[in-house]
Design a protein that fits this description.
Number of domains: 1
GO molecular function: hydrolase activity
Helix content: 25-40%
Pfam family, one: IU_nuc_hydro
Largest sheet: 9 strands, mixed
Strand content: 15-25%
Order of helices and strands: EHEHEHEHEHHEHEHHHEHEEEH
Oligomer: single chain
CATH topology: Inosine-uridine Nucleoside N-ribohydrolase, Chain A
Shape: globular
Radius of gyration: 18 Å
Protein name: Nucleoside hydrolase
Number of helices: 12
Number of strands: 11
Keywords: Glycosidase, Hydrolase
InterPro entries: Inosine/uridine_hydrolase_dom (IPR001910), IUNH (IPR023186), Ribo_hydro-like (IPR036452)
Structural class: alpha/beta
CATH superfamily: Ribonucleoside hydrolase-like
Distance between the termini: 28 Å
CATH class: Alpha Beta
Length: 314
């Protein structure tokens, strides 16, 4: 039986790979895609999601736009890693969508999909957590319909936007704290400590580009993203953060997790947006956040390649 899946996203190059992975995986039924501000403004994340949906031949999946700013305080700046349009300036290389964005907002779409579901739904938030915080605040009764959240975000020992904070959580710390700390929905967190280790090299990308027109189109979105990682990490490749989280949603247990008590720094000091993981043996609150810290790296990369290379022509 397939797992019903909703992806909440801010495309984003790695988001593109994540959406493609979901589309290529028969274990999941992609019910809907919701968009949020993040790597680029909401209008761009939504336009990118629509074009990616067209590339993947999944015009049947509704795409609904959500929050265009954080719950409380403005996002200080956007990500520069993904280029001006979020897809390395290559959005125009993707097919024009044949279906517009859903007229419903993201929270309404998620609510209606959850209400209609006949089995627990996995939600994979791979952008700022604003839409998810709004959903849980407005419709707490629907928590029972959510099987699990698989969240890409946070850093246990390192950040990627500040020394201690990862971009998704840093973009809306108040929303992130609501979801990760205050709610009781089963949650797996996929932090940058692990996703950086799951990076794929330029050779891996070149091989993927040769598998199909769709694979080539995905790799064609990586130009500025590749340049960023060469500059900041000396990496001849890219970090596919969000695809790692989607892999865990498709194949539960592909990532090794440990339960921790955690909090989120919402102060205005240098650690704003940082995940605070309590690794002591005796803690004041229960260790209820499953944090993914390890995986079979070669096995994960092989899984990603196998699925993405199975996509047909664009």
């Amino acid at each position: 039986m397939t797992t019903p899946l909703i992806i909440d996203t801010d495309p984003g190059v790695d988001d593109a790979f994540a959406l493609a992975l979901a589309a290529a995986s028969p274990e999941v039924e992609l019910l809907g895609v919701t968009t949020v501000f993040g790597n680029v403004p909401l209008a761009d994340t939504t336009a990118n999601a629509l074009r990616l949906r067209a590339l993947l031949g999944r015009e049947d999946v509704p795409v609904a736009a959500g929050a265009d700013r954080p719950l409380v305080h403005p996002q200080p700046h956007l990500s520069s890693a993904h280029g001006s349009d979020g897809l390395s300036g290559a959005r125009g290389t993707l097919p024009e969508p044949t279906r517009a964005a859903d007229p419903r907002d993201a929270v309404t779409l998620m609510r209606e999909l959850l209400e209609a579901a006949d089995r627990p739904v996995t939600i994979v938030p791979i952008g700022p957590l604003t839409n998810i915080a709004l959903l849980l605040a407005a419709h707490p009764r629907l928590k029972a319909k959510i099987g699990r959240l698989v969240v890409m975000g946070g850093g246990v020992d390192v950040g990627n936007t500040t020394p201690s904070a990862e971009f998704n959580l840093w973009s809306d710390p108040e929303a992130a704290r609501r979801v990760l700390v205050e709610e009781d929905v089963p949650t797996t967190l996929v932090p940058v400590d692990l996703t950086h280790r799951c990076a794929v090299g330029a050779g891996w990308l070149a091989d993927l580009a040769r598998t199909s027109a769709t694979g080539a189109a995905l790799v064609g979105l990586t130009g500025e993203y590749l340049a960023t990682y060469r500059r900041i990490l000396g990496l001849d490749g890219i970090v596919v953060h969000d695809a790692v989280a989607v892999a865990e949603a498709i194949r539960p247990g592909i990532l090794a997790t440990t339960a921790f008590a955690a909090d989120l720094d919402c102060s205005f000091g240098p650690n704003r947006g940082a995940l605070v993981v309590d690794r002591r043996r005796e803690v004041e609150r229960p260790p209820d956040l499953d944090v993914a810290l390890d995986t079979d790296l070669d096995g994960l990369r092989s899984f990603l390649f196998e699925r993405l290379s199975s996509l047909g022509g664009a």
